[in-house]
Amino acid sequence: MSPGEQREVTLKTSERYNSSRSETGRPVQFEIMSEARGSLLAWIERRGGSIEDFAFPGRVDHSAHMSTRQYARLVDEWVTAVGLRSEDYGTHLLRRTKPSIIYKATGNLRAVQILLGHTKIENTVRYLGVDVEDALTLAEGIEV
Q1: How would you write the chain as a 3-class SS string?
Q2: Pairwise CA distance, residues 144 & 130, whole Å
Q3: Residue 100 contacts by C-beta under 8 Å, 6 or more apart in sequence?
Q4: Fewer beta carbons within 10 Å, N or C terminal of the chain?
Q5: Which of 14-23, 41-50, 86-95 has the lowest mean pLDDT?
Q6: pLDDT digits (tens, 9 = 90+) for 99-130
Q7: What are phi and psi of 32, to 5 degrees?
């Protein structure tokens, strides 16, 4: 989820949430696991906010979401703080991780397409970097 997608998200008791993609305005459903939801709620309480506020408000305008650049700096700080090379991690890589894992585990492009909110399967194929070798590997694992 990018900073601009936070506006539509309200933490609730269920684990599934809807947000609007900033590029298309189309709704995308995503999941926040209970441990992460607990951490988010603790963070919001610690900074004195409410669940109606942005989880990560802007540095200058606290009623707006943080900028994409601010988000990138924050991810860079987190990665460095846990001892990883910041050159190897970025905001887009974080968005791509779970869909890539799902695709590698299942080979289900349609499921990944839905999770990413892509309207065209070709975009999902390009996004994941699926190539002929991937297709052949999947085919070899299926006997008819």
Answers
A1: CCHHHHHHCCCCCCCEEEEECCCCCCEEEEECCHHHHHHHHHHHHHCCCCCCCCCCECCCCCCCECCHHHHHHHHHHHHHHCCCCHHHCCHHHHHHHHHHHHHHHHCCHHHHHHHHCCCCHHHHHHHHCCCHHHHHHHHHCCCC
A2: 23
A3: 128
A4: C
A5: 14-23
A6: 888 888 888 889 898 888 888 888 888 888 87
A7: -120, 115
- Take residue 115 and report the two structure tokens written for it: 């999770």
Answering whether pTM is above 0.90, one says: no
Alpha carbon 19 to chain centroid, angstroms: 11
One-letter amino acid for residue 133 of the chain: E
Separation CA 44–CA 55 (nearest Å): 6
For residue 26, which amino acid is it?
R
Q: Is the pLDDT of residue 5 over 60?
A: no
Residue 20: how many other CB atoms lie within 10 Å: 16
